[in-house]
Specification:
Blueprint: H1 3-7, H2 26-62, H3 71-85, H4 89-105, H5 107-114, H6 120-130, H7 136-150, H8 155-169, H9 174-182, E1 186-191, E2 197-202, H10 205-236, H11 249-263, H12 271-275, E3 283-284, H13 287-290, E4 298-300, E5 304-306, H14 308-315, E6 322-326, E7 333-338, H15 344-353, E8 369-372, E9 387-390, H16 392-400, E10 404-407, E11 413-416, E12 422-425
Antiparallel strand pairs: 1-2, 3-4, 4-5, 6-7, 8-9, 10-11, 11-12
Helix pairs in contact: 2-3, 2-4, 2-5, 3-4, 6-8, 7-8, 10-11
Region (Disordered): 226-246
Pfam families: DUF222 (PF02720)
Organism: Microbacterium endophyticum
Length: 446
Amino acid sequence: MNIESLTDHIPGGHDPARVSATGVDLQALDVMIDGLTHARRAVAAYQALEATLMAATVDLARGSSQSGTAELPMREVTAEVAAALRVSDRTVQAQFSSALTLVEDFPSAHRALQSGEISRSHANVITSEGARITDAAVRKQYEDLVLERARVETSGRLRGIAKAIAEKLNPQSLTERHRQALDGRRVWVTDLDDGMAELSAIGSAVLVHGVFDRLCQFARTTLDAERTASDENSAESSAENNAAPIRTMDEARTDAFFDLLLTGDACVHGQDALEGIRAHVQVTVPAMTLAGAWDAAGDLAGYGPANPDTLRDIAGRTGTWDRVLTDPVSGGVVAVETYRPTAEMRRFLRVRDEHCRFPGCRMAPWRSDIDHTIDAARGGATVHTNLAHLCRRHHVLKHQTTWSVTQLDSGKLKWVSPTGRAYIDTPAPMLRFIPDPDPAPDPPPF
């Protein structure tokens, strides 16, 4: 399929019945989307072929009997491939390793890539999150479970799902692995060009996400204050005396990071508002884990499995907790209760949704709007079966374009695009937990 054959399918003129609310020619768009999906499947097939060839090249080097040192044939082959592909030999080494893992350890994912059912980024998520599973039978179970979700989810959303499934199936507990991983926590500096440098840190996921969320809140508060001050300056001063241009979110986040570390303070207008900012992370913890009777992992929204020891420590430091009741089979949220009077429905939706509910979007719920699936103005009830989180971008898209959404059972949303394509978005908690098998019956008494 080429551009000429695509455009041959686009009829001349415009059919008024096939024009979107914003004036887009839906017939032409339909053809282009078909072409794009065909192209993506073709790209995936070629990427699967490349992985096959790279794995075969590694086997070729491994099978060399002309040298007493196994490393030399691999170096020779790597250098040859790197020169032909115009990349470094270290890049080729990494690609060899990735291809070999995909072809040998995850053959079903490799076949799905070959058929265009998944993309290379999906395959990378499957292999990277499953790499810790050493038992072949368990790895196959993991691969089948994650592939089922990979066919309908973006690679970004898939990572959290894959991480949780790998954790559930891994015979080594997350607590043990987390304690080992903590030994690798560190902070380091990488010097860059133009007088810049990069400061990186590795630490507990709960703490890192908490730090990032707090920086986001600082940045948002400071930017709001700067916009207010800028508006006041514009009204009272000439253009040349106005304040400096408003910073971007990334710039404000970075400035807050260094201000807090170097001075212990983020000095901006609206200091009183800053003093009330607290990091916001959402965790789901099994009650028996909290009591110390189980060692099952909890779940950190936006990341995946969280270490039980860390979550128990958090529990001892806060007075506000949500009790989340889930279906024991599906893992879907049934209800959310709180020990303090609060906006119970918002809590329920925040736990159920975890992010914006437009397909593929991962915007956190506390940065999104709660939308009536059926508009309140059209009789839509304010109940959890008619509410879902949408980020501002997709909230506007729903109301201002011909995209439509229907809420199905268990919080599932069915989105229909202007060209008529349907997409089902399923709440994350229902995807992340694997039911334990029914226990074997007790032996008969003798």
